Amino acid sequence: MRYFITLLLLFSSLLFSGEYKLKYWQKGLNFFDYLVKFHIDSTKFYSKIDPNDIKYLSDIVADAPYFEDSKNGKLNSVLIPIGEKMQIYVHKTKDDYSFDIIPIDYKTIKDKVAISLKSNCYNDLKKATNSGSLATYIKRISKDTFDFKTLQKGDKVAIDYEQKSIDGLAWGEPKINAVYIQSRNKELFTILDGDEYKVFTNGISTIKTQKIVKKNYITFGYPLDKIKITSKFTYKRWHPILHRYRPHLGTDFRGKVGTPIKAVADGKVVFAGWLRGYGRVTKISHGNGYLSLYAHQSRQYVKAGQYVKRGQRIGEVGSTGRSTGPHLHLGIYINHKPRNPMNYLGKEIVAGSSISYKKIIKSVDNFEKELSNNQKLLYNSLKNMATDSNKSYRWKDLNKPIHIIIKESKENVKREELPNTKGASWRVNC
Fold this sequence. Notes:
Layout: H1 2-11, E1 13-24, H2 31-37, H3 42-47, H4 54-58, E2 65-71, E3 74-82, E4 86-92, E5 97-103, E6 107-116, H5 121-129, H6 133-141, E7 156-166, E8 169-183, E9 186-193, E10 196-201, E11 206-219, E12 229-231, E13 251-254, E14 260-262, E15 267-275, E16 279-287, E17 290-300, E18 307-308, E19 313-317, E20 327-334, E21 337-339, E22 348-362, H7 373-387, E23 402-409
Antiparallel strand pairs: 1-2, 1-23, 2-3, 3-4, 4-5, 6-7, 7-8, 8-9, 9-10, 11-22, 12-13, 13-20, 14-19, 15-16, 15-18, 16-17, 17-19, 17-20, 20-21
Helix pairs in contact: 5-6
């Protein structure tokens, strides 16, 4: 019977498609005002959304990329990514607007590109691929082993890489598998080996980089004296019958109204006030891109600009905002990306580091002898590309519309707790 029900719901799915334009979220804009801009009844829209879902709309940050389908001042639909795999989906129905959270449908492009320099690495790679990000990333992985300013007209650069794609638009960060550079009589070959890059050059040396790291630590405590989790962190909850996704980008802790809330680490209060959906909220910056968020408070004891210590009382548990009962919603963010708080609480975390590089020179007659068989194949492939004309993948212009097909179930279902799956970070490349 369960299998039969699943089939019914699958068959009741609808396919929607639209032409979307990539935009970036305006600083200071909240989703309530975004709807007002299109003359949409925001109060009515919010009143129909599950209280727990309001948080995702409150979490949209300035300059975040999103995809909008609108015409003549009317919004047809908008897609706002949450991480690299999931996205908020708001679209016009017959009489109103609907809210959902759905997967991002992308494919991975694997490609090689080679150029003979005519101006500079950035401009020539962008001309060849219509993406300037490749030059940025190969410079990053070649830092301290090669100075791209020394490249001259006629020098060769070839790259093997992978990139997620949404209808031809580069999505996320490219994965650089290997880089070959031929500059006058010198060759340089950089290849991804496990989770680090190895760099080889011809003639008298093999260049390797040794990291000298000075680590920065953050010690995390707990926000409440008694910890009882009522809702865990997850990017993707999938129900096999109801076919719905709902992320939860923080951890909810049970607590009575008035229970003291403590700062989880030393830091500076960067916000203390009201956020739609979250109610009374405190945000604390802990340095190195780390930030903690405390939502639904009944009272607050700190102000923006104030420095606090780990364990210091900053507020009290409440049920302000869109909440079904008294609890604390705790969020941990690193460079604006949500992380599972339970991976940090009660631990000493390496939050950042100062890295310097020491070059180690090893004399060799022929660096190709240092390569494995698979590395030799990739080396020869890129070297041959650098001397031959080739066609590489052309990425879509950021200002051109992209076509997205969305699969949506007809059923209007309720939230359910489901197993966790880890999320991913994201970025739109230029």
